[in-house]
Design goal:
This protein is mainly alpha-helical. The protein has ten helices and two strands, in the order αααββααααααα. The chain has two domains: 4-72, Arc Repressor Mutant, subunit A, CATH 1.10.10.10; 77-228, GntR ligand-binding domain-like (Four Helix Bundle (Hemerythrin (Met), subunit A), Up-down Bundle).
């Protein structure tokens, strides 16, 4: 039987991979990037990555073919039921109500991250911030933006908060995705989220919970104002 620490590491790695798959809009039958690329993109060790892949394969979320790669599977009934419940919720929420929920939850998560983040967690947050800032397209930026916010949730070292974030983020994608219109091919050099993300990462690295909470609150408010004309 797995020990609790190993099980936790395996589940956390699997959750990171699930978030990556969702953020990248991978569908059943799509091939995932090779391990070397995933290690660099996700900022995790080879051991952690393989544990996460093993767990997703055990759950039926992916399948692997020697010599060909790792592919997204059709998903489990339990996952489908959960996604169905979230899909139903999205029909009852406006984009602004979704953003209000983010303002309630994500600043508190950032506060916990500043208190509990490990050095590895801080390094990963900073890496994903850099990747988001250097993205060559909106799709690439949004993928790293997703991973950045999830890395902050992981840094809280609280599985319940990570789970709440994942559910909130699924609803966010469904509610806000179709309403966002981009005016350029990629984020401009002065995109406000770059500085805001850096402020969040800096406050977490400095172990300043109040500053991290406020930095995240300002960031979510800024995103809301930019996309929907209200903070």
């Amino acid at each position: 039987m797995l020990t609790r620490p190993e099980r936790s590491e395996r589940n956390e790695a699997a959750a990171v991979l699930r978030a990556f798959i969702a953020a990248g809009d991978y569908t059943p039958g799509d091939r995932l990037p090779p391990e070397r690329e995933l290690i660099g993109t996700l900022g995790m060790s080879r051991t952690a990555l393989r544990k996460g892949l093993d767990e997703l394969e055990r759950q039926g979320a992916i399948w692997r073919h020697v010599g060909k790669g790792t592919f997204v599977a059709g998903g489990e009934a339990e996952v489908d039921a959960e996604l169905g419940a979230l899909a139903a919720l999205t029909h009852q929420l406006t984009p602004m109500r979704m953003m209000r929920a983010r303002l309630c939850i994500e600043p508190a998560i950032a506060r916990e991250a500043a208190i509990n983040a490990s050095r590895e967690s801080v390094a990963r947050i900073k890496l994903l911030n850099d990747r988001a800032a250097s993205a060559g397209s909106w799709a690439e930026y949004e993928r790293y933006d997703d991973l950045f916010h999830r890395a902050v949730a992981e840094a809280s070292d609280n599985l319940l908060l990570v789970t709440l974030f994942d559910q909130l983020n699924e609803v966010r994608r469904a509610v806000a995705g179709a309403s966002v219109v981009r005016q350029s091919e990629r984020p401009p050099a002065g995109h406000s989220s770059f500085t805001e993300h850096a402020g969040i990462a800096g406050a977490i690295e400095a172990r300043d919970p109040l500053a991290a909470q406020e930095a995240m609150r300002r960031h979510i408010g800024s995103v809301s104002a930019r996309l929907f004309g209200e903070g």
